[in-house]
């Protein structure tokens, strides 16, 4: 049973952000931070993507823990937004659903080793990543424009969208060796940092909205 924080305002009870949502966002960070620390010298955070952690010891399970926990927390945040008045069938709900689903699909279908031919699993993984990296920044921007006016949300969304495009473009150096430095890992990590910031900012914005009479 989910427990929700509730605030009393002028005799009304309003649903704010559930502890499992914020807890899930925080907990999802621990496995991936551990992988970064444990694989120092084994996997380059500049050249290799986060998905490549499945090829280090215990990486597959730890990366799955991060992805699925983040997907569940994001889905919980969407439920909270809907309870706060977000249209259930609107574009934001669809985009946030795609973000959560993309995380889950990318977990079930792992990436291919660098240099290996593209497999069915690897192709699904890449398309799922493209969908989720496009969906959340757009959802955040729409929320900041139509549901919860917030400069912070808008800035995180725009920064994440720009970094998402840069990450996609950085694949050129992998597809065409010798065309430039391989830095897609760096762009992806910056992107994930911005997406986490966006999710935490969104949770905070929902709470402030519910506290406003």
Short description:
This protein is mainly α and 213 residues long.
Describe this structure in words.
By secondary structure, this protein is mainly α. It has one domain. 66% of the residues lie in helices and 4% in strands. The chain is built from 8 helices and 2 strands. It has helices spanning 19-27, 29-38, 59-83, 91-108, 120-146, 151-169, 172-175, 184-211, and strands at residues 6-9, 12-15. The chain has a two-stranded antiparallel ribbon with strand order 1-2. β1 and β2 form a beta hairpin. The longest helix has 28 residues, at 184-211. The radius of gyration is 18 Å and the shape is globular. The model is unreliable at 1-15 (pLDDT under 50). Keywords: Membrane, Transmembrane, Transmembrane helix. The chain crosses the membrane at residues 21-41, 61-80, 92-111, 123-144, 156-178, 190-207.
